């Protein structure tokens, strides 16, 4: 499972590089790779065999780790149903103006994704979570990304508006790892995430690259599995949706031809 942690930490690193602060990120990580006794590089996680970047570096803030990473907590974070005493750092403080990126990686099958190898979230549960978020006005638009076997099955039952979704594999297909670090002894990243990261490294805050380009970043001859996506719930063509709408701290500004009048007054007191 080392590569699943590396996948998530790599996406986390990308969104932080593009300006999203930890206060606007909820990171859930099993967090048993860096200190696992089998890890020959203690307190590190690498996503490439050259080991240039330790994605488990000093500036990583894990919000939910170990036994806290449960289906119940995942659903509560998204729907805002956490106990009042929960620290703000563990809450997703979103509203109807928020663009949300949800990235998931792990072992999956048709209609489910595993949490901690001990429980699963189903496609039906996930679809209902999205609807709760919409009804409670917790998002403006969502980009849902999942890297697992049969990943497409996790978004086929979505029915809420303003959602884009992309998966590393079709129903009936495995999602494959990219390469092994022989000095660590395990595969360190999955194919879809590897090529998504390669694409994201070409994006900066002023980039005009689109979601359509992101969805095409891993053709079948690279991914081996078939990357699939859903756009029917989204109101705009994906060639007009910027990657930075989800991966960067960028606000879209629109011009209006209308004249807006402001009233000003000064108030002062004299002795």
Automatic annotation (TrEMBL):
Active-site residues annotated for this sequence: 107, 149 (nucleophile)
Alphabetical UniProt keywords: GPI-anchor biosynthesis, Signal
UniProt-listed InterPro entries: GPI_transamidase, Peptidase_C13
Pathway where it operates: Glycolipid biosynthesis; glycosylphosphatidylinositol-anchor biosynthesis
Source superkingdom: Eukaryota
Gene Ontology MF term list: GPI-anchor transamidase activity
A GO CC term attached to the entry: GPI-anchor transamidase complex
Gene3D superfamilies, per the entry: 3.40.50.1460
Pfam families according to UniProt: Peptidase_C13
A single BP term in Gene Ontology: proteolysis
Family recorded in the similarity comment: Belongs to the peptidase C13 family.
PANTHER family assigned to the protein according to its UniProt record, in alphabetical order: GPI-ANCHOR TRANSAMIDASE
Protein name per Swiss-Prot or TrEMBL: GPI-anchor transamidase
Source organism per UniProt: Brachionus plicatilis (Marine rotifer)
Lineage of the species this protein comes from: Eukaryota, Metazoa, Spiralia, Gnathifera, Rotifera
């Amino acid at each position: 499972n080392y590569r699943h942690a590396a996948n998530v930490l790599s996406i986390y690193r990308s969104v932080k590089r593009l300006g999203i602060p930890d206060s606007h990120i909820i990171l859930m990580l099993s967090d048993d790779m860096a200190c696992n006794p089998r890890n020959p590089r203690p307190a590190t996680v690498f996503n490439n065999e050259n080991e240039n970047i330790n994605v488990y570096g000093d500036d990583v803030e894990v919000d939910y780790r170990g036994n806290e990473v449960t289906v119940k907590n995942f659903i509560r974070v998204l729907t805002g149903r956490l106990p009042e005493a929960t620290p703000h750092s563990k809450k997703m403080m979103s509203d109807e103006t928020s663009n949300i990126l949800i990235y998931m990686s792990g072992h999956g099958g048709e209609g489910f994704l595993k949490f901690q190898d001990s429980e699963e979230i189903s496609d039906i549960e996930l679809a209902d979570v999205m609807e709760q978020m919409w009804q409670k006005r917790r998002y403006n638009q969502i980009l849902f990304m999942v890297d697992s076997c049969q990943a497409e099955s996790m978004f086929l039952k979505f029915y809420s508006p303003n959602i884009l979704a992309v998966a590393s594999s079709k129903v009936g297909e495995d999602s494959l790892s990219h390469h092994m670090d022989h000095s660590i002894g395990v595969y360190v990243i999955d194919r879809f995430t590897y090529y998504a990261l390669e694409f994201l490294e070409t994006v900066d805050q002023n980039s005009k690259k689109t979601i359509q380009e992101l969805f095409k970043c891993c053709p079948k001859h690279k991914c081996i599995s078939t990357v699939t996506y859903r756009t029917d719930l989204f109101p705009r063509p994906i060639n007009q949706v910027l990657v930075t709408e989800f991966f960067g701290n960028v606000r879209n500004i629109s011009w209006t031809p209308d004249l807006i009048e402001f009233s000003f007054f000064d108030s002062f007191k004299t002795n």
